Amino acid sequence: MENNKTTIEIPTKFNPATQKYEPDLEALDKKVEELKKEKNHSKEVETRKKEIEAQEEKIKEIEKKHPNLKDKKGEGGFTLIIIIMLASLLIASLWDKTPAIKNSVHYILNPSAGFLLDWNLNIGMLIVVFVITLLTTIVQKYATNQEALKELKKEQKEIQKQMKEFKNHPEKVMELTKKQWKLMPKQMKLSMRALAYTGIPFILFFRWFGDYFIAAEEIAGEPIRLWLGMSWFLFYILFAIVFGAILRKWWDIV
Q1: pLDDT band for position 72 (50/70/90)?
Q2: Residue 199 region by backbone torsions, left for phi larger than 0, else alpha for psi between -120 and 50, else beta
Q3: What confidence tens digit (pLDDT) does each residue in 146-159 have?
Q4: What is the CA 248 to chain-centroid distance, rounded?
Q5: Do residues 239 and 129 lie in contact, with contact meaning Cβ atoms separated by under 8 Å?
Q6: Buried b vs exposed e over 42-67: b needs ≥16 C-beta within 10 Å?
Q7: 246 — alpha (psi -120 to 50), left (phi > 0) or beta?
């Protein structure tokens, strides 16, 4: 049976009154306190080690529960996203060279989004931005594995918390950092899947926006500014972020 008892050497000091060496109770108390702190620290380290092991088990459970998170040989996690991005850039470059693309988009958006902008530039733009953000948020909710994303995000937060606690232990921080980097590509892969559905429509909408405001500026003879002197692009980005944050929080979307 393992002996967990700790032997403490009792410190002594010379007492001039008795001319003898006697136990130094003050030094003994300090030594006992130091040993208690060391023992508590050892327990804390052991507890954290168990938490890290539990963390690893959770990651394995997530991968087991969601097999698509595993990196399979020959399977490019971002292949589809790259293809969509390249296709979007190609379509954008062909906008002025291929009238069929441009005319088709104008045919659909002129009587809808264009009507709203003609009615009231600021309010119409606000409505258009909201509708686009609403649609992209819905796609994000149903085209991505929200359960897996939430679990991964939870694991990321737990790892960050442990990194702060182990900041004085470089080897542990390095170990946790590796785990964090291991999760990040998986999280990005899941988060960006919605791009497969929204990438091309998004580019087409932006090209249409460009055409609309160029034509409007030619008619007005001056740059078109929206609220607070913002350009249409800045207006879109700002309110898309605001609407997106509200909708994501409302629907609990990662």
Answers
A1: very low
A2: alpha
A3: 888 888 888 888 88
A4: 13
A5: yes
A6: eeeeeeeeeebeebeeebeebeeebe
A7: alpha
Rounded distance, CA 89 to CA 165, Å? 45
Q: Strands 20-23 and 12-15: what pairing?
A: antiparallel
User: What's the CA gap between 236 and 212, in Å, rounded?
Assistant: 14
Task: Determine the Cα–Cα distance for residues 203 and 87; give it in Å rounded to an integer.
Answer: 10
d(CA 130, CA 168): 47
Backbone angles phi, psi at 83, to 5 degrees: -60, -45
Q: Which amino acid is it at 180?
A: Q
Q: What one-letter code names the amino acid at 175?
A: E
For the chain, list the strands marked E by DSSP. Answer: 12-15, 20-23
By the 8 A CB rule, do 247 and 137 touch? yes
Contact criterion met (CB below 8 Å) for 176 and 163: yes
Provide the angle, in degrees to the nearest 10, between the axes of the packed helices 195-220 and 79-93.
20
Q: Which amino acid is at 183?
A: L
What confidence tens digit (pLDDT) does each residue in 109-122 have?
999 999 999 999 99
- Whole-prediction pTM value? 0.68
Q: Which residue would you say has higher pLDDT here, 96 or 44?
A: 96
Question: What distance in Å separates the CA atoms of residue 118 and residue 1, rounded to the nearest whole number?
Answer: 86
CA neighbours within 13 Å on the CB side: how many for 167?
A: 4
Q: How far apart are CA 178 and CA 199, in angstroms?
A: 31
